[in-house]
Amino acid sequence: EPEVTQTPSHQVTQMGQEVILRCVPISNHLYFYWYRQILGQKVEFLVSFYNNEISEKSEIFDDQFSVERPDGSNFTLKIRSTKLEDSAMYFCASSRTPGGAFFGQGTRLTVV
Amino acid sequence: EDQVTQSPEALRLQEGESSSLNCSYTVSGLRGLFWYRQDPGKGPEFLFTLYSAGEEKEKERLKATLTKKESFLHITAPKPEDSATYLCAVQEDSNYQLIWGAGTKLIIKP
User: Fold this and answer.
1) Is there a contact between A103 and A91 (Cβ–Cβ < 8 Å)?
2) Is A73 on the interface with B (CB under 8 A)?
3) What is the pLDDT of residues A38-90, one digit of tens each?
């Protein structure tokens, strides 16, 4: 069964460093998303991506964040100058149509 | 103001004891309501999409229903492997992002 793959599963970084979280969406999906979940809190929408551009973004997704689809299979989230409060699980998701999406297993980001 | 509220926060049942989880929502227009299952340390696993009041979807021991203000996830004769956090999310008709509830942690005791 096709699945969304995320790497790494766990990333530890120093405050102020840049991190890149990687995702391989399901191959015939057209819509791509990043969500995050701070420990013990709700899942929060960050950004959606369609047709090689950002289609929607939340207030969380400020200039510190960027997304890229560098080739036909990968979808990345870059976080610049990480802060302690960026520590969270980051989930990539993809779907064929906008809406119900299939999620990866997540990358646990720990900023120290 | 919370747009998606799930209740109860936690629910403990004996194996075979049926029950329902609730998701109430307040949005100006609903494009879709989604149910997911999440195991600890894992990503949400898609279960159902509901689009209009009166719609029902079933999968194994789970059945989701939708009204104009809320959705129920009914679980019939649950097994210990049904233990997880069940998440509800809504999509407004003005955009495509999902707005999530806090989830119901379901524990099924053998």
Assistant:
1) yes
2) no
3) 998 999 999 999 988 999 999 999 999 999 998 878 999 999 999 999 999 99
